[in-house]
């Protein structure tokens, strides 16, 4: 079994009102060094080793875990974990 870390973020140019609200709040709390904030999703999957593991993960990301119209994704496959 492998641990897969999936990161989903909005594509460049897509407005992020939630990120803007967080940035505004940080500025109000005197964290003026923050220039901008983008909000995303982090998912952690434990998957069994199968043929074409990377292809299967990409299919999961494209079909369910991200919205390919407005989001990008990246993933890493970690070391095998004991079951």
From TrEMBL:
Function of this protein? Part of the phosphoribosylformylglycinamidine synthase complex involved in the purines biosynthetic pathway. Catalyzes the ATP-dependent conversion of formylglycinamide ribonucleotide (FGAR) and glutamine to yield formylglycinamidine ribonucleotide (FGAM) and glutamate. The FGAM synthase complex is composed of three subunits. PurQ produces an ammonia molecule by converting glutamine to glutamate. PurL transfers the ammonia molecule to FGAR to form FGAM in an ATP-dependent manner.
GO cellular component terms attached to this protein's record: cytoplasm
Annotated keywords: ATP-binding, Cytoplasm, Ligase, Nucleotide-binding, Purine biosynthesis
Species this protein is from: Salibacterium qingdaonense
UniProt catalytic activity: N(2)-formyl-N(1)-(5-phospho-beta-D-ribosyl)glycinamide + L-glutamine + ATP + H2O = 2-formamido-N(1)-(5-O-phospho-beta-D-ribosyl)acetamidine + L-glutamate + ADP + phosphate + H(+)
Q: What is its EC number?
A: 6.3.5.3
Protein's cellular compartments: Cytoplasm
- Its main localization is cytoplasm
Question: Which biological pathway?
Answer: Purine metabolism; IMP biosynthesis via de novo pathway; 5-amino-1-(5-phospho-D-ribosyl)imidazole from N(2)-formyl-N(1)-(5-phospho-D-ribosyl)glycinamide: step 1/2
> Can you name one GO molecular function term for this protein?
phosphoribosylformylglycinamidine synthase activity
Assembly with partners or alone: Part of the FGAM synthase complex composed of 1 PurL, 1 PurQ and 2 PurS subunits.
Single biological process term from Gene Ontology? 'de novo' IMP biosynthetic process
Q: Which family does it belong to?
A: Belongs to the PurS family.
Q: Which InterPro entries match?
A: PurS, PurS-like_sf
- PANTHER family membership: PHOSPHORIBOSYLFORMYLGLYCINAMIDINE SYNTHASE SUBUNIT PURS
Q: What is this protein called?
A: Phosphoribosylformylglycinamidine synthase subunit PurS
């Amino acid at each position: 079994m492998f641990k897969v870390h999936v990161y989903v973020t909005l594509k460049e140019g897509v407005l992020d009102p939630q990120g803007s609200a967080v940035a505004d709040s940080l500025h109000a709390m005197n964290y003026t060094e923050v220039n901008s904030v983008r909000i995303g999703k982090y998912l952690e999957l434990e998957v069994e080793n199968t043929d074409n593991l990377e292809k299967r993960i990409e299919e999961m990301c494209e079909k369910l875990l991200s919205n390919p119209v407005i989001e990008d994704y990246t993933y890493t496959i970690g070391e095998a974990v004991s079951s």
